[in-house]
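Appendix B, Record 12. Input sequence as logged:
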Amino acid sequence: MAARRTHGAVADPRHGPGPARRTAGQPGPRVNAAAVGDDPAAQARARILAVIRAIPRGQVMGYGQVAAKAGLPGRARLTARVLGMNDDPDLPWHRVLRSDGRIAMPEGSAGWKEQSQRLRAEGVVIERGRVKGMPVTGANDLDAALWGPG
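Logged structural output:
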């Protein structure tokens, strides 16, 4: 499979499975163990991707928020690395921003323009490269999207 450029980096053809139901007492999204094996890096990547897939249309999260929701607090850079390796055209990568609401790519770059365009198409207001008011998704909304009704 040929790698393609997404989110400012050369994509890695590997990506994790979609979200699965969480069991009581388990932090973050559960991943399909058969799909990722015992590889902790693959498990972390799959958890991050599951959280990103669950961000509702028109809402955003910060890199650190995604990592924390995936059960990986303090791993914002890992979230960015996983997005940089993305090759899934259906992954809503554009919904992930810096903690201050800014787009992380260089202003005016092709990636910056594409992310701005995608967010605006979903009704997100962007002024000077920053999401106005950082309408971050609430924990309950994201939990519902990841795990379904209580």
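Residues 40-53 form the longest helix (14 residues).
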